[in-house]
Amino acid sequence: MTLRTLGSLGDLAGTRVFVRVDMNVPLYAGEVADDSRIRASLPTIEELLGRGAKLVLASHLGRPKGEVQEDLRLAPVGRTLEALLDRSVTNLEVVTPEELPDDDIVMLENLRFAPGEEANDVGFAGALGEYADVYVDDAFGAAHRAHASVSALPELVLATGRPAVAGRLLEREVEVLGRLLADPARPFVAILGGAKISDKLAVIESLAQRVDALLIGGAMAFTLLAAEGGRVGASLVEPDRLDDVRDAVAAARARGVAVQLPGDVVAAPAIDAGAPTQVVPADAIPDGLMGLDIGPATVDAFTEVIAGARSILWNGPMGVFELEPFSAGTRGVARACADADAFTVVGGGDSLAAVAKEGLADRFDHLSTGGGASLEFLEGRTLPGITILEDPTT
Ligand code: 3PG
User: Domains, the chain, ranges and CATH?
Assistant: First the structure.
């Protein structure tokens, strides 16, 4: 799939470019707690400014459901962007102002304060379209949402003869993840973790057709272990998914994929940093204990597979890594990926946070900014924010 990109745009001097970004970042005490997603769109913003464009930036933040929510205003994001660019950013307090200031960088208020955004409302898209001589979508994290700024707006822009293209971040995400699915260097190893297997079942089914090995950790492994007859104590299990996960793993193995589950886990009676821990076999966890991290033998086993990989995709932590006693598995996997002589891609907020915390971010080839969007892309689904930007001539 080829997208129309910034390269296809002509002279932009004085042109007003509407840029849909995903600056849905965590806030703490009214300030941006992690600016990774803001930084990720800097190449697009800087390129457009360098080409003389005037920018109208638009993002969602949180889920205010069509109403103004004071703690979800975009002002802190604008301040952070201002500091990163070392240029002034005009933060508006409304989503669709009647008069747009003629400043170089204007940021609209949180798109989701307007009910028309999530409703993919054509009228709302029309109002946004007033600010767009050109439309650029750099919001990979929102590409799976058929919302007005992602779907109806580019449709309308294109229908009225104006350009709608992907920004550099979206372009790279699609290129990297697309290549990983279509033509990975082998062996291709995927590492999946996180709490709920129901969120990842479709990804497992999709990856099973592409990877050579699948390493599964995190709480989601317990539903699988239980499905295979293991005793998982008080670990998190999704009982209504046992048959589905058993079938998915059986199908993957039948295709020759080496599916590896944890052999040992760090268990404790509660999700509490002060709780006593013990390392136990993953399929024989004593009653009353829950598995909260993969154990040291599993870290070694996973590390061996990872070390032999040429392509690696990692999404989801191996345990409750925010708590130190249950963080060694995720840290071990992060280090193994960083050390591997492979093309390495990590996605999902928690895994990204773990990589950043370990100071390993620059040792990965690609840090994917999409949470749900990455997963849907990897499932092989059609993402509305991407489809609309495809170049029909390629
Ligand atoms: C994300 O954080 O995954 C994106 O910004 C999309 O947010 P949403 O799940 O609230 O649509």
Answer: 6-169 (3.40.50.1260), 176-378 (3.40.50.1260)
